Amino acid sequence: MALLKSIEMIRHGALTLKVTDHFTILFCESGTSVIRVNGVSLTLHSREAVLLARGQSLMVEKIEEASPMRLLEFDPTALFHPELAKRYVTPYLNTEKSIHMIKPERGHQSIIQTIERAVQHLSADGPLALMDATLQCTVIWRYWIQQEGEVMKNENKRESLRLMLAYIESHLEYKPTLARIATAGNVSRSECCRLFTTFGNTSPLAYVQVKRMDRAATLLMDSIESVADIANRLSYSSVSHFVQTFKAHHSITPLAYRKQYQRKRAV
Hints:
Elements: E1 2-5, H1 7-14, E2 18-19, E3 23-28, E4 32-37, E5 40-45, E6 48-52, E7 57-63, E8 69-74, H2 82-88, E9 99-102, H3 109-123, H4 129-170, H5 178-184, H6 189-200, H7 204-222, H8 227-233, H9 239-250, H10 254-266
Antiparallel strand pairs: 1-8, 2-7, 3-6, 3-8, 4-5, 4-7, 6-9
């Protein structure tokens, strides 16, 4: 089921360069070590670990003399009944997620303790050691697929944001409402607001205002439309409201902005 290698075996060439055949955990028990994963150098400090999907290139670059490192490999399909493996293993074997760093200061204490227990059980000779280690590896795999779920959630959020941004961009002349923006992203209005706050530190309607003012500036530069026509095109209730909003955003009136641009272009 699982195989544990000591740091001495790694230091003497057992892990000069390899491609992971199974789910792999590298755990730095103390000190500092440097590993190379998929061509990128990663530094592991005391009680830090890296989780790797199968098929990743791995090499140990530097290990301090008194820095024990543990390599733990297991086949997750061997941890579960075949029906459970179909549900909890197979869908997660061929995903884009390939690496996950675990650091104590990031709130990963619980999973670090689980890795430590797995190492301890695999190093023990008791009659139940293998079973206990298997249980710990199951918990580690559960953590991995939970992180995969978080990745998918974040990808879904970014896709919703992309759809909303595209909707705003194509509907600036119609003064997009919060409800319509949220509908474009297939999210609730509250989730819409959370996404704009999280990714842009702004609100949806504040973002719309900025984009409308950017569009207004472009129209002033690239067209001969009057200020009144531009205000009407962007669905402002009055020219005065448009002028006030434009000045608040650009610190200059629309006509002055156009004249300033024309002078710059003439130089």
